[in-house]
Design goal:
There is one protein chain. The chain is an alpha/beta fold and about 450 residues long. It folds into three domains: about 5-30 and about 240-380, Rossmann fold, CATH 3.40.50.1980; about 35-105 and about 120-235, Nitrogenase molybdenum iron protein domain (Rossmann fold); about 400-435, no CATH class. The protein is built from 16 helices and 14 strands. It has helices at about 15-25, 35-45, 50-60, 75-85, 85-105, 145-155, 175-185, 195-200, 220-230, 255-265, 280-290, 300-310, 320-330, 360-365, 400-420, 420-435; strands spanning about 5-10, 110-115, 120-125, 130-135, 160-165, 185-190, 210-215, 235, 240-245, 270-275, 310-315, 330-335, 350-355, 390-400. The N and C termini lie far apart (about 90 Å).
Length: about 450
C-alpha cells in the first residue's frame, strides 16, 4: 500500500489548526524513565566504576575485567584510522579541516575600555577546563558528531576533551575512533546511556568529572542531561531531526524528494516539510517521493516518518512562506529557489539556512563547515547552533580609579538604600569618604 503524504494549504480556513497538529511533538513514553534515570545517576554517583561495570555488562552485554578496561587506548584509535580506506580517511580529514576553519571565526576575544576619569572596564574570555562528549553507538554511529562536538571545543581552547561511547558486545565503529583522533579528543571511554552522563557529571575513579556535557543521545541520555544540568552545563535537549524546504520550479523534484528523505531516514519521528507557492512543484515532488521510496535502504524508517510527520504545504505567495518559516523556526531550512539571498533578511528563526539548490542539508551534516548540532522543535526562536562560544565563558572586569569610584558611589548609595540594603550603601559610601580625604 503506497504511503500517503499529507497535503496542506495555507489558504484553507483550518490551516492553522492543521499546522499546529503537524508540529506537535510526538509523545515520548516518559512513564518510569525519569525515576529510572534518577536511580542510575545515584548508583553511579555512589558506587562509581563498580556501577559502570555492572551496567555495561547488563545493557551493552560487555564484560570488562576491571575499570581500566573502560578506557579505549590511543593505540586502538590509530588502528581504526589505518583500517579506513584512503578515500574514507581523506573524507574525514576534509570534514575536520573545514569544520575547524569555520569555527575559528567564532572565537571570542577579551577586551577592555578605559574610563575617562581613571580605571577601566572589560571582559575576560576563558575556555572551559574539561568537556565531555557523548557519542551514540549501537544502532547508529556518528563520526560526524565527534567532529562537530570536539573540534569547536578544541578551537575554543578547552583543556581536556573526554568522549564516551557505548560499545554493545564490544563493537565500535572504527570511523568514530578515527574521528576522535582527528578532532583532538584526549580520552575515550566505552560506556553509554544515562550511566555515561552520570560518570561525566560526577566523575569516578576512572572517568574524570567535566564542566559541560555535549552530544546527542536517546531519551535516557537526554533525560540524564536534563537531570544533571546545574551540576554541569549541557548543550541542549534535542528533539527529533527536522527539515523545512522552500522550493520553486528551479529545483528538480527528485533532488527535493531526496532532501526530504535525508531527514526522514534518521528515525520514525523525524519531520520533513516542503512548502511552495507552485502546486506543480508539490505534485512533482510527491510523485518523486513515491517513486524513490521503494529503493531506499532505510525504507521502513522513511515510510514511517513520512506517514506520521511529513507534509507538502501550498502557500499563495512568498510572504505566506516566510510567515510559516518563522512560525516553525526549523532546525534545518533549505531555500531551494532561484534567489535565496533575497529571502535571508526576512528570516528570523532557523537553526541553519541552506541557500540554493546546490546546497543540500546533507552537505551541512558532514563537511560544509558550520555545526550540525542545531536547535530543534522551534527552539531556534531563542537558541543557536553549537559553536566555539559554548566552550568559552566570560568574566566581567571592573577596575575603577578613586574619582569615578566616588562619583558612582553616590548613585549606588541612593539605589542601595532604595532597596533597603544598608551594607551595600555604606560599602559604597566608604569610597566617597576615601575620595573626599584624597
Amino acid at each position: 500500500m503506497p504511503v500517503r503524504i499529507r497535503r496542506l494549504s495555507a489558504c484553507d480556513s483550518c490551516f492553522e489548526t492543521e499546522l499546529a497538529e503537524l508540529l506537535a511533538q510526538p509523545e515520548e513514553q516518559q512513564d518510569g524513565i525519569e525515576s529510572q534515570v534518577r536511580s542510575i545517576l545515584m548508583e553511579v554517583r555512589q558506587r562509581g566504576d563498580v556501577a559502570l561495570l555492572e551496567m555495561t555488562q547488563r545493557w551493552d552485554r560487555l564484560h570488562l575485567a576491571s575499570a581500566q578496561d573502560l578506557e579505549i587506548p590511543a593505540a586502538q584509535w590509530l588502528e581504526a584510522m589505518e583500517s579506513l580506506s584512503e578515500a574514507g580517511l581523506a573524507a574525514l580529514q576534509c570534514a575536520a579541516e573545514r569544520i575547524r576553519s569555520y569555527h575559528q571565526h567564532q572565537l571570542l576575544q577579551s577586551w577592555r575600555v578605559e574610563e575617562p576619569k581613571g580605571g577601566w572596564l572589560g571582559q575576560q574570555v576563558t575556555a572551559l577546563d574539561r568537556v565531555g562528549i557523548y557519542v551514540p553507538g549501537g544502532k547508529a554511529s556518528y563520526p560526524s558528531s565527534v567532529l562537530m562536538n570536539a573540534i569547536p571545543a578544541r578551537v575554543a581552547g578547552v583543556g581536556e576533551v573526554v568522549m564516551v561511547v557505548p560499545t554493545p558486545e564490544g563493537v565500535i565503529n572504527p570511523w568514530v575512533l578515527a574521528a576522535a583522533h582527528l578532532a583532538g579528543v584526549d580520552r575515550v571511554f566505552r560506556v553509554g546511556g544515562a550511566q555515561a552522563v552520570a560518570a561525566l557529571a560526577y566523575g569516578t575513579a576512572t572517568i574524570p568529572a567535566v564542566d559541560k556535557i555535549v552530544g546527542p543521545g536517546n531519551i535516557y541520555v537526554a533525560t540524564a542531561k536534563r537531570q544533571v544540568f546545574g551540576k554541569v552545563g549541557i548543550d541542549m535537549i534535542a528533539g527529533p531531526s527536522e527539515i523545512l524546504v522552500y522550493a520553486d520550479a528551479s529545483a528538480p523534484a527528485d533532488w527535493l524528494a531526496m532532501d526530504l528523505f535525508s531527514q526522514a531516514e534518521h528515525d520514525e519521528q523525524a519531520q520533513s516539510i516542503l512548502i511552495s507557492s507552485d502546486r506543480g512543484v508539490l505534485d512533482r515532488v510527491e510523485r518523486a517521493m513515491l517513486s524513490l521510496l521503494p529503493g531506499m535502504q532505510r525504507r521502513a524508517i522513511i515510510q514511517a516518518s513520512v506517514k506520521a510527520r511529513a507534509a507538502l504545504i501550498y502557500v499563495p505567495d512568498e510572504a505566506a512562506a516566510l510567515q510559516i518559516i518563522n512560525r516553525i523556526a526549523p532546525e534545518h531550512l533549505q531555500l531551494a529557489c532561484a534567489n535565496p539571498d533575497a529571502l535571508l533578511p526576512k528570516i528570523r528563526h532557523a537553526g541553519a539556512i541552506f541557500l540554493g539548490i546546490h546546497t543540500p542539508e546533507a552537505l551541512g551534516d558532514y563537511c560544509a563547515g558550520p555545526n550540525h548540532v542545531l536547535p530543534t522543535s522551534g527552539t531556534a526562536r531563542f537558541s543557536s547552533p553549537l559553536g566555539v562560544y559554548d566552550f568559552q565563558k566570560r568574566s566581567s572586569l571592573i577596575a575603577l580609579g578613586p574619582v569615578i569610584a566616588g562619583e558612582l558611589a553616590q548613585q549606588a548609595s541612593l539605589l542601595a538604600r532604595a532597596e533597603g540594603l544598608e551594607a551595600h550603601a555604606r560599602s559604597a559610601e566608604y569610597r566617597m569618604v576615601a575620595t573626599d580625604d584624597s
